[in-house]
Design goal:
Helix 1 runs parallel beside helix 3 and helix 2 runs antiparallel to helix 4. This protein is 43% helix and 15% strand. It is globular. It is of the alpha+beta class and 164 residues long. Strands 1-4 form a two-stranded parallel sheet. Strands 2-6 form a two-stranded antiparallel sheet. The chain has a two-stranded antiparallel ribbon with strand order 3-5. The protein has one domain.
Length: 164
């Protein structure tokens, strides 16, 4: 399966006032963009990436039809132009992750999951979109626990924006 996604990191300034989470504001102001410093890191709204990925994979699975026809998939992920991208979700769980483990960011221009491009991992049909999104999170250095919290926050945030 190949689903092309094009997500570009934001080149916007790291204005801590633009975040709704007070904890994210604090972490950005202290660790990423202290006043008066030039910031090389780029924001990547990984929550939006997960939502788009989930929508595309769900649509693809619906298009395929019956779950019995194809039960398992081989998946490998790659990101290009990722260097210095920080996966961010405007949620307290992200700030807690940064406090505990440091700022996650892509240290290379090409990221692959699994790291060997010849490899792939096999996923059951019913967990496909979730496992792909979790693989994206791991590629950027987020833990499984942080991913679960941030994915929930991204879904809740999307629901709130639709109800406006």
């Amino acid at each position: 399966m190949h689903i092309p996604l094009c997500i570009h990191p934001a080149h916007a300034a790291w204005d801590s006032a633009s975040f709704s989470s007070l904890e994210v504001r604090r972490v950005v102001g202290e660790r990423i963009a202290p006043p008066g410093q030039v910031v090389q890191l780029q924001r990547l709204d990984i929550g939006s990436l997960w939502l788009v990925t989930s929508a595309y994979v769900s649509h693809y699975l619906n298009w395929l039809g019956s779950e019995d026809a194809i039960a398992r998939f081989r998946v490998a992920l790659s990101f290009t132009n990722a260097v210095f991208s920080v996966p961010l979700v405007d949620a307290d769980a992200w700030a807690s992750h940064v406090d505990a483990l440091g700022v996650p960011f892509a240290a290379s221009n090409l990221m692959q999951f699994p790291s060997n491009p010849e490899s792939s991992f096999v996923i059951d049909h019913e967990r496909l979109w979730f496992m792909i999104c979790e693989g994206q999170a791991h590629s950027f250095g987020l833990t499984t626990e942080t991913f679960a919290q941030l994915f929930t926050a991204a879904v809740v945030g999307a629901q709130k924006s639709l109800n406006v």
